[in-house]
């Protein structure tokens, strides 16, 4: 079947935090796979372990036990150097609080992942400009984060996450600080960016309505998987929308 290759494989992942005498089983034995090009949503209430799981998958937090494979490579086996190189080459991140560098312009922020890739400046400027135009910020490139709205800052965040064409983009509550209208715009943008180059998205949210954007919904409760749901309706609806568009052209 086309597009069914597994890109992320989470195997019995566990994370235990020790707080004095207490042991918190934040992620308590979670296994699932994500296929290439899939939009996967980790859905659950606050404190259920979503962010911890995302951070384990991205190699930001160390597993207590279990393993995570991305593109067949064990995150656990990698040295810090290897891991940071792997992240630069394969992963992108979108954060709830945008995490842009305040002293840099939108353009410089978006160029940053390409600087780490040691790309020549003319080429990286061209790529950063191109993607900023795509996210609708062609007229805000020289603005600094504090000179932009929340929605604009998150557009910069999305441009930065996608500019180097990573295979996987991780997003932790990317619309958590945005109003409902901007939330829809940002979600559509993430979906559009990812589908263009068959990139894989893993997004954390507590908002049930956002799960509608996902192909696969993984419900998390108390560090466990409650259910895994393939969202056929979304694909079907998207397909129908595309057909409708085709007919009008
Ligand atoms: P969510 O993202 O679903 O809101 P988290 O993954 O942030 O949940 O947290 C899961 C559980 O782990 C919570 O009980 C939280 O208090 C605990 N936790 C998260 N990070 C830490 C940490 N660094 N140290 C101790 N406990 C933590
Ligand atoms: Mg969280």
Verbal overview:
There is one protein chain. With 249 residues, the protein is of the alpha/beta class. The chain has one domain (36-63, 79-248): Rossmann fold. The protein is 37% helix and 28% strand. It is built from seven helices and ten strands. It has helices at 50-57, 80-90, 106-116, 121-134, 150-162, 180-196, 232-248, and strands at 6-19, 22-35, 39-43, 65-70, 73-74, 91-95, 168-172, 200-205, 216-221, 224-230. The strands form two sheets. A six-stranded mixed sheet has the order 6-7-8-3-9-10, sandwiched between helices. A four-stranded antiparallel sheet has the order 2-1-4-5. The chain is globular, with a radius of gyration of 18 Å. The model is unreliable at 244-249 (pLDDT under 50). Bound molecules: adenosine-5'-diphosphate and magnesium ion. Residues 17, 19, 24, 26, 44, 46-52 line the site of adenosine-5'-diphosphate.
Please describe the structure with a list of short key phrases separated by commas or semicolons.
single chain, 249 residues, alpha/beta, Rossmann fold, 6-stranded mixed sheet, 4-stranded antiparallel sheet, 10 strands, disordered C terminus, binds adenosine-5'-diphosphate, binds magnesium ion
Topology of this structure?
Elements: E1 6-19, E2 22-35, E3 39-43, H1 50-57, E4 65-70, E5 73-74, H2 80-90, E6 91-95, H3 106-116, H4 121-134, H5 150-162, E7 168-172, H6 180-196, E8 200-205, E9 216-221, E10 224-230, H7 232-248
Parallel strand pairs: 3-8, 3-9, 6-7, 7-8
Antiparallel strand pairs: 1-2, 1-4, 4-5, 9-10
Adenosine-5'-diphosphate is lined by residues 17, 19, 24, 26, 44, 46-52.
């Amino acid at each position: 079947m086309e597009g069914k290759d597994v890109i992320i494989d989470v195997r019995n992942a566990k994370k235990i935090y020790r707080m004095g005498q207490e042991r918190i089983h934040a992620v308590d034995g979670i296994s699932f796979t994500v296929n290439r090009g899939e939009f996967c949503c980790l859905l659950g209430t606050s404190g259920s372990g979503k962010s911890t799981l995302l951070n384990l998958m991205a190699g930001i937090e160390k597993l207590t036990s279990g393993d995570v494979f991305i593109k067949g490579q064990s995150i656990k086996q990698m040295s810090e150097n290897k891991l940071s190189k792997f992240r630069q080459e394969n992963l992108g991140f979108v954060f709830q609080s945008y995490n842009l560098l305040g002293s840099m312009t939108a353009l410089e922020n978006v160029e940053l992942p390409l600087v780490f890739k040691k790309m020549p400046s003319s080429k990286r400027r061209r790529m950063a400009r191109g993607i900023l135009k795509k996210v609708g910020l062609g007229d805000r490139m020289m603005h600094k984060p504090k000179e932009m709205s929340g929605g604009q800052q998150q557009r910069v965040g999305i441009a930065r996450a996608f500019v180097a064409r990573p295979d996987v983009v991780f997003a932790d509550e990317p619309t958590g600080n945005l109003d409902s209208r901007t939330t829809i715009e940002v979600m559509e943008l993430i979906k559009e960016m990812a589908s263009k180059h068959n990139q894989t998205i893993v997004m954390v949210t507590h908002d049930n309505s956002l799960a509608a954007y996902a192909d696969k919904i993984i419900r998390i409760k108390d560090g466990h998987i409650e259910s895994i749901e393939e969202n056929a309706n979304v694909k079907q609806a998207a397909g129908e929308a595309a057909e409708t568009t085709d007919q009008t052209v």
